[in-house]
Design a protein that fits this description.
Length: about 210
């Protein structure tokens, strides 16, 4: 399916038609304070794609058959920084017991591990903690750095990236969440964690757009 990128004026036209259907092109132009000629190409696109239906001497109706296209446009406009949550960060020498307590008190699926310079160095999930507990590790003494997943095996994302890229990474790598990082321009190996992108963030965004 080809998703057509609608501009802001076209989206406004759709809203006007939905609220006032049937409505003439003259009335739409008046609502937007533009001429009919200005809207000609916009209305042509919206009718050709099936989003609007035009009836002679009656006006424009909203058909809605391409609502999925509009949803795709709105998702593509969203950046990771628009929906990311606060990250839960712990030092790599924190013992496993403290990590377990933090994870369940924070109600997150993963915790990001940093070193003394606040550089991302690991990630730990509920599955990792469960394995350590079942395996008989002394969770009160063993540091989380002993069982965490280390770089370069950590999937990350930048705040400027599209939410769709984040969703794709989560699905492809079968993970619950990933750290949103800022990479030092002078030291590419230094990554500061500034947020968390999770399945929950993305699901909430999808529901918000769908409800609107």
């Amino acid at each position: 399916m080809i998703i057509i990128q609608l501009n802001q004026r076209q989206l406004k036209i759709i809203d006007i038609v939905k609220e006032n259907e049937p409505i003439t092109s003259e009335s739409i132009a008046a609502s937007l304070n533009v001429t009919r000629a200005t809207l000609r190409s916009d209305l042509a696109i919206l009718t050709m794609t099936g989003i609007l239906d035009a009836r002679p001497k009656v006006g424009y109706f909203y058909s809605g058959i391409n609502e999925l296209n509009l949803l795709g446009n709105k998702l593509k406009d969203k950046k990771v920084e628009d929906i990311m949550a606060m990250p839960i960060l712990l030092k790599k020498d924190t013992n496993i017991y403290e990590v377990i307590v933090n994870m369940f008190l924070s109600d997150v699926g993963s915790i990001f591990i940093i070193d003394d310079n606040e550089n991302l160095c690991g990630i730990v999930s509920r599955k990792d903690l469960l394995k350590a507990t079942i395996g008989g590790a002394d969770i009160n003494k063993m540091p989380i750095g002993m069982i965490m997943t280390r770089m370069p095996n950590i999937v990350t994302i930048n705040k400027e990236d599209d939410v769709l890229l984040g969703a794709r990474k989560i699905i492809e790598h079968e993970i619950d969440s990933m750290p949103v990082v800022e990479i030092d321009k002078e030291n590419q190996n230094y990554m500061k964690v500034i947020g968390r992108l999770s399945k929950t963030n993305i699901t909430k965004l999808f529901l918000e757009i769908a409800d609107n």
